[in-house]
Amino acid sequence: MSAKHAAPVSLSTILEKFRDKFPVSPEKWQEYTGQFQRIQVPAKTILLKEGEISRKAYLIEKGCLRVWFDNKGEEVTFQFFFENCTVSSIESFKKGTPSLFSLETIEPCTLWWIDKNDVDRLLEEVSEIPSMRNQIMNTLFERTLHYMQHFLSFVRDTPQERYENLLNHHPYLIQRVPQHYIASYLGISRVHLSRIKNKLARGK
Amino acid sequence: MSAKHAAPVSLSTILEKFRDKFPVSPEKWQEYTGQFQRIQVPAKTILLKEGEISRKAYLIEKGCLRVWFDNKGEEVTFQFFFENCTVSSIESFKKGTPSLFSLETIEPCTLWWIDKNDVDRLLEEVSEIPSMRNQIMNTLFERTLHYMQHFLSFVRDTPQERYENLLNHHPYLIQRVPQHYIASYLGISRVHLSRIKNKLARGK
DNA sequence: GTCAAACGATAACATTTGTTACCGAATTGA
DNA sequence: TCAATTCGGTAACAAATGTTATCGTTTGAC
């Protein structure tokens, strides 16, 4: 594809990191990586709309995305994704059901996408390799834990504590993402997030 | 073991349901099921304490359990489990890390437990079978989705809506579980749950 | 450069939810 | 059976959070 020729260096830079985790032949590796296509999109591009069925998974070379849903007319941001992450509306992509979420760019983005058919075939093939299927299971498991932890923070922490955690663990997120997205991500109103910031600014 | 002889019918009744999902020889099946041991415990028995490392997974024949953690001195219930469910402090059991949760019976329970070593060996063996590893992946995936959905309900719904969902989808839970456990499970105080019930009782 | 839209801060007020305290019923254990 | 504990309801008040409105700044499109 022309996209592949447009920036072969970028693709290999990104996928290179995963090369040693794929104990497959160079030919297979070529085949797999060749299934990705590069696109560049402006900010606020909707890659997948709530209710549609996801056919693509994305790898983020540059930029950031958010996953959100419509709750009684207001947008609630559910998750953020940054460079080197793979993103899809996971439940829609896996099961072919209408997506519960929209997938939208926050900044201008450079993305690599791969079609579901290719992913399915790839997974089928590599899960014959014991070390690969352990990796896949671990990845799935870690994602489960991530949701569990995230949920836990909602049950355990106050909004202010959640914001402070974000500050400590993901300061880049605060820098790059508009505040009203962060507010809904934390489960509070924009106004209340302002109050919390104000409170923290003055000596706590 | 004597436990196995104590109630062979119960074990087969419970595991029988899974027999057709295990395309293994009768000998293997015998080996696997023989690794379970039956115990009976009173209500309020702590099967695993927060901070300990989980070595056992449980299958519930009769009764119900809750998973909870200590949050600044108060107990927060995170999940409930009923008959025919398998339970463990999943992250501790899988990774050998100190458990984030305690595991406690709510009612007098009849349980079957299996040691982690046996589970590991079992998983190792059966994941050679393609249909089995698909099942395992699906189970893991479904659990991820479950956490996602549960989390979603916290972000999207009001406490009253969450209670109504519980009423509609898991009415038996409301019947069997003490109300103050349910309150913390819903993320609200006991008093507030009382208010909600009162409000619903009078014509909404 | 200009205008409109997006973004964030703040204030005033309303609503939700938590806290504490008290009561009575149900359950449990000796 | 009795006393102690657990459990759930309610009221009064406090704290947290939402809602609406206003304002100034920044950003982006043309």
Biggest sheet overview of chain A: 4 strands, antiparallel
Instruction: Determine the strand fraction of chain A and express it as a percent band.
Output: 15-25%
Tally of contiguous helical segments of chain A: 10
> What is the spatial order of strands in the main beta sheet of chain A?
1-8-3-6
Structural class of chain A: alpha+beta
User: What is the CATH topology of the domain at 2-128 in chain A?
Assistant: Jelly Rolls
Average pLDDT score of chain A? 88
Order of helices and strands of chain A: HHHEEEEEEHEEHHHHHH
Poorly predicted tracts of residues of chain A: 1-8
CATH architecture of the domain at 2-128 in chain A: Sandwich
- In total, the number of strands of chain A is 8
Please describe what this structure looks like.
Two copies of one chain form a homodimer. Chain A has 204 residues and is an alpha+beta fold. The first copy, chain A, has a domain at 2-128: Jelly Rolls (Sandwich). In chain A, 52% of the residues lie in helices and 21% in strands. Chain A contains ten helices and eight strands. The first copy, chain A, has a four-stranded antiparallel beta sheet. In chain A, a hairpin with a 2-residue loop joins strand 4 (65-71) and strand 5. The longest helix of chain A has 27 residues, at 130-156. The first copy, chain A, is globular, with a radius of gyration of 19 Å. The termini of chain A are far apart. Mean pLDDT of chain A is 88; it is low at 1-8. At the A-B interface, helix 4 and helix 6 of A face helix 4 and helix 6 of B. The first copy, chain A, binds a DNA duplex (30 and 30 nucleotides) through helix 10.
